[in-house]
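Q: I have two molecules that I believe assemble together. Could you output structure tokens for the complex as a whole instead of separate predictions?
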Amino acid sequence: TQLLEQSPQFLSIQEGENLTVYCNSSSVFSSLQWYRQEPGEGPVLLVTVVTGGEVKKLKRLTFQFGDARKDSSLHITAAQPGDTGLYLCAGAHGGFGNEKLTFGTGTRLTIIP
Amino acid sequence: NAGVTQTPKFQVLKTGQSMTLQCAQDMNHEYMSWYRQDPGMGLRLIHYSVGAGITDQGEVPNGYNVSRSTTEDFPLRLLSAAPSQTSVYFCASSKPGQSYGYTFGSGTRLTVV
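A: Yes, here they are, computed for all two components at once.
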């Protein structure tokens, strides 16, 4: 069984602060995906990272895939209340690359105005 | 462009009853999956399909059946509902390939009493 551990589980910070969320595994994945989920809705894809060492930026969000493709991090600069939500990492695997996703347990982020 | 549509949004079943959760996507995605989300356990893969006529088991398949007769539809059947199947169920779809992420439906909240 492939497991993904996310840390921290809960994070509550003031608006304007920076934060980093981590996603770690002992397994190698073909890609690592990050999703954000709002209450009562399904997860929404933020980014997919494929290459070991890859860094992707999405406005104030920076995503990094570990060199060995086993771990990833999400860094948010100058957090805003609109960043509040459940952040999920998911490792993709399978013969063709993304038939199956293994999800982490999530980081619940609260940004205090 | 509807994306992934799940019905119903809410359902209450009695123990032993059967029902089908519907999922349809209009993006011509080959891959479709069913997940359940439980507090503290993240999303767990139930069944998945890489194309019409092809299905396979995920991490927690017991008590559930699927079929994929068309590219668009991927229904999930609960054969004899149990309280342990109380959960939020999400359907998702994707193009094949490690650089593609999944589009999720808005979920079905199922309670088995």
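A: One point stands out. The interface with chain B takes residues 1, 30-31, 33, 35, 40-45, 47-48, 50, 88, 90, 92, 96-106 of chain A (CB under 8 Å).
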